[in-house]
Design goal:
Elements (H helix, E strand, L loop, with lengths): L4 H6 L7 H14 L11 H8 L3 H13 L3 E2 L8 E2 L12 E2 H12 L4 E7 L4 H6 L1 H8 L7 E9 L9 E2 L8 H28 L2 E9 L5 E6 L3 E6 L3 E6 L4 E6 L6 E6 L4 H19 L3 E2 L4
Parallel strand pairs: 4-5, 5-7
Antiparallel strand pairs: 1-2, 3-12, 4-8, 6-11, 7-13, 8-9, 9-12, 10-11
Helix pairs in contact: 2-4, 3-4, 5-7, 7-8
């Protein structure tokens, strides 16, 4: 249902539900009347416009946030329209390479952006960050600061994967291949974000630390409000070394389904976000060590 001022006037005696208001605001977002990065009017203004109590407006905003259309609903100020509303948010988990970019774009709509990541390489993050960076260059979003912390496996450990199916990596070729990818992706990611300092005056801080183990999952924590989790599923694959190939046990993180947990959703989800943040902070502050991208 699309509710307009005219509808309200005509149906003046009808009491609008949270779903009615959510539908009306969703239509404004889809039509472009409300653009990515725009702030909604205050709850008081919306309540007056639709002729309802503020609690009804709050329920409508929760619905829109659950659909991935809003950011910053519960911080005391009017929420913003998410930068790139995901078409299927809140439905089925998407492949990491599809699902991460719109979630990052929403997180980058906040004034202060904080992204914490645990992963095996920075490949998915590097690709997904291209979307919010593009929106910043287009002037559609403009955070004041960006802080990114990334935990990756140490180059000094024997990785659980990838490894040759036929035995040990005696010549170290598989390990060196992974290390070259890890470092190159990290450098590109850091360069692209730091370039926002000069081009847009955004305060950017990108830090890496090394883990003494191979993470079996990857975790993205967005502004301490959302946790995105995906599993690394090991499979047989052929590694390309240019002049030769080698069969190895490896993972494809780009295809891994990404599961979302939002702090403002159910208590179970909020607990998952909080515990995931504690887990990351503990790793960062204790057993993680300095990492240099050579």
């Amino acid at each position: 249902m699309v509710v307009t001022q005219e509808n309200v006037a005509v149906n003046g005696s009808r009491k609008l539900t949270p779903q009615d208001i959510a539908d009306a605001l969703r239509d404004r977002i889809r039509s472009g009347d409300l653009k990515p990065g725009d702030r909604l009017p205050t709850q008081a203004v919306l309540a007056e416009e639709f002729g309802v109590e503020r609690g009804t407006v709050r329920q409508a905003l929760k619905t829109l946030q659950g659909d991935g259309l809003l950011a910053n609903v519960s911080k005391g100020s009017p929420p913003r329209i998410a930068a790139e509303p995901p078409a299927s948010a809140g439905v089925e988990p998407q492949a990491s390479m599809v699902g991460l970019a719109p979630r990052l774009s929403g997180a980058f709509s906040e004034p202060q952006v904080r992204i914490d990541v645990v992963s095996y390489t920075a490949e998915t993050l590097m690709i997904a960050l291209g979307e919010p960076v593009r929106l910043i260059h287009e002037g559609r979003i403009r955070p004041e600061s960006i802080a990114v912390r990334i935990l990756l496996p140490s180059s000094d450990i024997t990785l659980a994967f990838p490894r040759p199916t036929g035995g040990q990596d005696d010549e170290g070729r598989v390990h060196q291949r992974w290390l070259a990818q890890r470092n190159a992706q990290g450098q590109v990611l850091r360069h692209n974000l730091r370039a926002l300092r000069a081009s847009h005056g955004i305060d950017v801080d990108v830090s890496f630390r090394a883990l003494p183990f191979t993470p079996p999952v990857k975790l993205y924590l967005l502004n301490q409000q959302e946790a995105l989790l995906a599993y690394y599923t090991i499979e047989r694959s052929m590694l390309d070394f240019g002049s030769a190939e080698m069969e190895a046990f490896d993972v494809s993180g780009l295809k891994s389904p990404l599961f979302s947990f939002e702090k403002n959703a159910a208590p179970r989800d909020a607990a998952f976000v909080e515990e995931s943040q504690k887990w990351f902070d503990a790793l960062w502050a204790t057993i993680a060590t300095e990492l240099t991208l050579s």
